[in-house]
Amino acid sequence: MNTEPHIITTQVGIVGAGPAGLMLSHLLARAGIANIVIETRDHSTIQTTQRAGILEAGSVRMLTDTGVDGRVLTHGHRHDGIDLRFNGVSHRLNFQDLVGESVWLYPQNEVFVDLAAARKRDGGDVRFSVTDTEVLDLESGVPKMRFTDAGGQRVEVHADIIAGTDGSRGICKRAIPATDRTDNFISYPFAWFGILTEGPPSAPELIYANSAHGFALISQRNEHVQRMYFQCDPEEDAGAWTEQQIWDELQKRVDGPDGFTLQRGPIVEKTVLPFRSYVCEPLRHGNLFLAGDSGHTVPPTGAKGLNLALADVKVLSEAVESFYGTGSRDLLDGYSAKALERVWKAQNFSYWMTSMLHSREDQSSFERKRILGELNSVATSRYGQQYLAEAYTGWPHG
Ligand code: PHB
Fold this sequence. Notes:
The protein is of the alpha/beta class. It has helices at residues 19-30, 43-48, 57-65, 71-75, 95-99, 108-121, 243-254, 305-326, 330-357, 365-379, 382-393; strands spanning 6-9, 12-15, 35-38, 54-56, 77-79, 81-86, 89-94, 103-105, 125-127, 131-136, 144-148, 154-158, 161-164, 182-187, 191-198, 207-209, 216-220, 225-232, 267-273, 276-281, 284-285, 288-290, 296-297.
């Protein structure tokens, strides 16, 4: 093994090849800005990790308008609404009618596959399976990324800007001294038990169900594979649940006078997903800029995580382009505040959806009934429905 670091100079160094990092790399490359992406995981691990599945219309446009691939349109499914279900009764929110938009069911791992393929097609420099990653000299004019590549070579990348798109457990956020950032967060006393099951869909659109037994989400993947979740204890051991117990628990939470019945099938994956709301402020330290989960996380109830990451990256790529085009740092200086405006709207929406749909063990009868009053206020008011529809389908970009 060669221990002398091999030095490479580029314009933007990107830490993390999830959708945020790859989309940023793609947008910068289209603007003629050189960049290198590094990632500790390998391609197949990211490709097979189940994540959420809803894309806002603006996210879909980012993929199709920038020439990533039209697979989202051919393999994804357009959803014009969702069902809010409570007291065993479904209330459909028609997004097209309410706000003239739709969302697309297209899982995050497919977005990753498309972006990775686009980077490969366009000759992008994306290095998977790197180890011992560090970011350094962030406050200097030459911030750096250091890592060992898959072949064992130590590499040091000298850049003008480093983008931290390395997720909620990444190194970039932690590279900001604790005295220079505020960690805003709350945790929740519950988590989601997620399953992937083989069989036909139980419903044509997503069902967000509140019940006295807790929350459940009925989602889909395609004609043969479905995705569902139910609220559980954060310490729940997924392995301890039998298929029968999982199906009975899910069914209990969607039971109602309409006799709605879930299509049961073999469960091919089960995982407990922890829940947290977090925002790092600012999303910047010197020449390090955080985007996506590395700077903020939302609970999955509003389906906002991936969409927020793409929105951040749009703002950041415009700021970086402006810097190279005009020499002015104004947009870079404004990045954090501009991205955070959308982040906090999405935090509020995700928190609101989460508290309105879940139940707590220690909930009083007053609180349980107040929540039903809140759900009823949303479901029976065009204005209430419209707020939910606007936030769910995504506020306009820019
Ligand atoms: C999913 O299909 O995985 C999914 C959909 C909507 C959510 C969360 C997860 O709010």
